[in-house]
Amino acid sequence: MTRPTLTLAQGAKATRILGVGSTQPDRIVTNDELSQHMDTNDQWIRDRVGIVERRFAADDERLVDMAVTAGAKALADAGVAPSEVDTVIVPNCTLPAPIPNAAAQVADRIGIRSAGAFDLNAACAGFCYGLGVASDLVRAGSAKKVLVIGAEKLTDVVDPTDRSTAIIFADGAGAALVGPSDEPGIGPVAWGSAGDLVDLIYMRDNRYIFQEGQPVFRWATTQIAPIAMRAVELAGLELSDIDVLIPHQANLRIVEAIAKRLRAKGAREDLVVADDIRYSGNTSSASIPMALDHMRAAGTVKRGDVVLTVGFGAGLSYAGQVLVCP
Ligand code: UT7
């Protein structure tokens, strides 16, 4: 008896980002405001982290709400109707409870019916992981258009008196719609993890994020530039081809250290480097798509620019890829 042969889906030969969108809570929190609750000050935060202000969500403003707003904006930006989208991925690490996931609710509220929907937790690397998975789903033929929304409400999991986290983390969401393309617009993902360093960032007593700031800082400033370089190599490009660098907005000094290393290896002096952390804080899996959206609105990133992203954080997990700005 001959066994039946399975039929495989036929995917797109290449993918690109069709549209982006983001949202932030209305409430602006200055460094001076934080210094009223803990032993810190505006100058220290600006000098050591680069943050001028950040946004905190209201009590009734949920991660899912921010994801819906950012995702809907990405669809509008792409000019794509919800009915054309079949898959929703919500990278996040701050949903208050693991059940139900965010993605199914977000899909339903945006009007994407019967969507394949799942959350993805790679902490601050989540958006790059999600973008890599979305691109491969479309190339494999498993999905036609995938909405990837990095969304976080970090204020739910930050001890407001812990000055190593409370001055850094903030809330927001950023989204990208991924679909088929004639020309490659999303390069292969370079990803990995260092689970032996898991104790450097974790949820203490299942309640608040704890991080060993200095070791994480050292790890990020030494180990992440090589990942970014690997993403460029996988895309078949040279560092000098990169117009814009958007690392996870963890700390402006980390961002600048990564840029410096890449320039030493051939990146251009006129490389545009994201500094969205100044007015957004560290929003974990939302930081990269939010920075891309803000930079595009400001005109610092233009359609067709070659953008290098790299995310890194708890896990420790990291991922990066080259993409073309829509
Ligand atoms: O997104 C997920 C991945 N996370 C990261 O990438 C975070 C990486 N780490 C960092 O960004 C930094 O380590 C922190 C921002 C968390 C801390 O900055 P730091 O420059 O590493 O500070 P430190 O802990 O080495 O402390 C330096 C000094 C100390 O004073 P002395 O002992 O030198 O007198 C601290 O007591 O700064 C003091 N300090 C502060 N002062 C005012 C530490 N935190 C604060 C603060 N405000 N918030």
TrEMBL record:
Where in or outside the cell is it found? Cytoplasm
Q: What EC number(s) are associated with this protein in UniProt?
A: 2.3.1.180
The pathway entry for this protein reads as: Lipid metabolism; fatty acid biosynthesis
Q: Which UniProt keywords apply?
A: Acyltransferase, Cytoplasm, Fatty acid biosynthesis, Fatty acid metabolism, Lipid biosynthesis, Lipid metabolism, Multifunctional enzyme, Transferase
Ranges for the region named ACP-binding are: 249-253
A Gene Ontology biological process annotation? secondary metabolite biosynthetic process
Segments forming domain Beta-ketoacyl-[acyl-carrier-protein] synthase III N-terminal: 118-195
Reactions catalysed, semicolon-separated, are: malonyl-[ACP] + acetyl-CoA + H(+) = 3-oxobutanoyl-[ACP] + CO2 + CoA
Q: Does the keyword RNA-binding apply?
A: no
**A GO-annotated cellular component:** cytoplasm
- Where, by residue number, is the active site? 124, 248, 282
Indicate the segments forming the Beta-ketoacyl-[acyl-carrier-protein] synthase III C-terminal domain, all copies.
234-323
Domain comment (free text): The last Arg residue of the ACP-binding site is essential for the weak association between ACP/AcpP and FabH.
Q: What does this protein do?
A: Catalyzes the condensation reaction of fatty acid synthesis by the addition to an acyl acceptor of two carbons from malonyl-ACP. Catalyzes the first condensation reaction which initiates fatty acid synthesis and may therefore play a role in governing the total rate of fatty acid production. Possesses both acetoacetyl-ACP synthase and acetyl transacylase activities. Its substrate specificity determines the biosynthesis of branched-chain and/or straight-chain of fatty acids.
Q: Which family does it belong to?
A: Belongs to the thiolase-like superfamily. FabH family.
| Subunit organization | Homodimer.
Q: What is this protein called?
A: Beta-ketoacyl-[acyl-carrier-protein] synthase III
Q: Which organism is it from?
A: Saccharomonospora cyanea NA-134
